[in-house]
Amino acid sequence: MFQPQLGLKGSSSQTQIDDRLKHHPTVYEFYTDANDFTPNGYRHLYDAVQYVQAAGINKIVLHHPMKFRNYHSEVVAPEQNYPALYRFIEQSTEQLIRLADDLDVQVLVHGGYSGDEAQHMVDLYPNVAAAREAVYQRLDRFVRAGREHIMFENSIAPVFAYGHPDQEDEILAHHYRLAFDTSHCFIELHGDNQGLQASLRHLAPAVVHYHLVDSLGQTHDSLTLGTGKINWARVLPLLNPSATSIYEINLRDQNNCAEQLASHRYLCQLADQLSN
Q1: According to the model, what pLDDT value does residue 57 have?
Q2: What is the pLDDT averaged over residues 116-130?
């Protein structure tokens, strides 16, 4: 069975890194933003990864930036309608892949995000199927560049969402290395625990990384484990035991990972109960 591991997330800020490292995590996931892709920002990020590696952590994930200017980094965005956003996603992904190749770490790219903005971009295509195909073609290119260093995370949007068997079959047919955010799938399914469990079971062999996050199943709330409506006793046995994971939880203070630690304590207690 999947054994809970302490996976923590933070930026390349020295304060945040040191706050996480004092708890000796197994996994560190870097939150990145557009500033990390300037010449100085990229050097800082590169040095930060090496700093975490020097602390003995060899499981490191670089999370592609969520936003560029006023937009989410939606890979579905057509180049002709969003040229600056399109180029930023291309260039930042290329930079992350180069860093991952150099330092043997992982890159996580969102297959989509959510909301009216994403829907507007999807509406620029003839239909949802055409929008999904555009996403798959772009992700296929990223795979050819990133190979075993890149993975793709599920969205709460018409493209690249988990929770729908037919769409999951399409995704699996591309043989992507997957990141599975539990809250995104739960919200996509409007709080359906059985649907979440079916998706976890279906996709488990392809999943290499989990974002373990609780939710009430309606909005993107990113709750501490045990405070939402996800049935973790049913989820835990369905996780791929060879995958890495982090707790991607809203923090009251970005320089204090207390809510991530509370989530880990909750999951460890649950794992002990299930094994007895």
Answers
A1: 98
A2: 94
